[in-house]
Amino acid sequence: MRTSSLIPKRASVWLTTLALLGALSACSGESQADLSAHAAGGGGEEKIYGGGTRGLNYSSDAIYSYYVTGPRGMNGGGGNMSRATKDGPGEAGERCCIGIPQPWKPNTQLHIEWERDRKPFDYKDRSGLAVLTATVTVPEYGPHTSGFWAIFLPGDRVKVIVGDGNANGRNDLNIRPVDGDPFIAQGVRDETLTKQALKRFQQ
Asked: Is residue 83 in some structural domain?
């Protein structure tokens, strides 16, 4: 499986994020990076913790990578998920790191883009390769978190969550999101980014 260029192209954003988060401890679970910021409009204080990024793929497409950008340090990515099988979804290993603000705020939206391939093993026919984008809303999460997840679904759809042991009933990583889940977003093909991705296979 080929690795996407989405993440390397954004190395400068990664460096900015890592500078913001400072020296984080292990990415699994919450990192006690003592970085405080004033909550927008509220005057209260919030903290941004470091968490790892992972992914689940319930679709029949290969997912080469994904990348999210958003407010309050929520920038990061993950990648390389195989297709779903009868045994369950494809899964991406953990990468470091993304900012996880505490407390959660309603209507926190992120921009996500991902590279999927419907013919990942056909190097002559690249018609299945595309880069998709969407705006996703982060569901409520509790005070004790275990990283960030992007969940890919058939039909170029995606949901993101911050793992919290399903404290609020919205973030169960053991169950595929139902089709009526209000936090599922529809991806839209980005022609410019798709052309850039296709060039890599022509070299």
From this structure: yes
Sorted by sequence, the CB contacts under 8 Å of residue 175 that are 6+ apart come out as none
Is 177 domain-assigned?
Answer: yes
Q: Whole-angstrom distance between the N-terminal and C-terminal Cα of the chain?
A: 16
Q: How far apart are CA 142 and CA 2, in angstroms?
A: 35
Is 136 buried (19+), middle (13-18) or exposed (0-12) by CB count in 10 A?
buried
1 belongs to a structural domain: no
Residue with tokens 């960030």: 148
CA atoms of 130 and 118, how far apart (whole Å)? 9
pLDDT tens figures, 32-89: 333 333 334 444 688 999 999 999 999 999 999 999 999 988 999 998 899 899 999 9
- Structurally, the chain folds into a number of domains equal to 1
CB atoms under 10 Å from CB of 105, counted, come to 16
Has residue 170 been placed in a domain? yes
pTM here? 0.78
Residue 14: domain span: 6-202
3-class DSSP assignment, residue 8: helix
Instruction: Please provide the size of the chain in residues.
Output: 203
